[in-house]
Amino acid sequence: MTNMYKNKVAMMSDADRAIEWKNLWGGNVPSHLSRPMIERSLIFKMMERDGLGLNEEQQNKLEQLVASYKRNPQSIERNNRILPGSRIVKIWKGKRYSVEVTDTGFRCGDINYSSLSQVASAVTGTRWNGWVFFDLKKHVTKMEAV
């Protein structure tokens, strides 16, 4: 279903995207948004318009997050940060990969990456969520629950 919306938005000209944005969001496309973000936003609003938006539980959670953010913008920041100097090790298909966390991202071998997902994709040759690939997501969730 989502592919239908993706295809429709991808085939639009910039002018058509601007018109659709105005129809769905009620204003001009913000100049600071990247094209992928504009497209994702349009897809979301088109799906919402067609009754495929957030369910009641998701909408309530979003409203709670917005209210919390308005009271204190730092309230919704997740502290998923791994401290610079840390080392993450993963065995993948019998080969050991060691990733150093730097101030600006991650270093694996002689290459710097801006995200763990980029490292995971380079290692596997396919797209991965870096936190999932390096088995960090479940550990962060457990720590947050404490």
Strand order of the largest sheet: 1-2-3-4
Report the total helices.
7
Summarize model confidence as the mean pLDDT: 86
Number of domains: 2
Give Rg in angstroms: 20 Å
State the helicity in percent bands.
40-55%
Strand content: 5-15%
Low-confidence stretches: 140-146
Order of helices and strands: HHHHEEEEHHH
**End-to-end span in angstroms?**
38 Å
Number of strands: 4
- SS-based structural class? alpha+beta
Shape: extended
Largest sheet: 4 strands, antiparallel
Core attributes:
about 150 residues; alpha+beta; 2 domains; 4-stranded antiparallel β-sheet; 7 helices; about 15% strand; extended; disordered C terminus
Descriptive report:
The protein is α+β, with helices and mostly antiparallel strands. It has 2 domains: 2-74, no CATH class; 87-145, no CATH class. The chain contains 7 helices and 4 strands. Strands 1-2-3-4 form a 4-stranded antiparallel beta sheet, covered by helices on one side. A hairpin with a 2-residue loop joins β1 (87-92) and β2. α2 (14-25) packs across α3 (35-49). It starts with a helix and ends with a helix.
Summarize the structure.
Helix content is 51%, strand content 13%. It has helices spanning 2-10, 14-25, 35-49, 56-71, 116-124, 130-133, 137-145, and strands at 87-92, 95-101, 106-108, 111-113.
Write the layout of secondary structure elements.
Layout: H1 2-10, H2 14-25, H3 35-49, H4 56-71, E1 87-92, E2 95-101, E3 106-108, E4 111-113, H5 116-124, H6 130-133, H7 137-145
Antiparallel strand pairs: 1-2, 2-3, 3-4
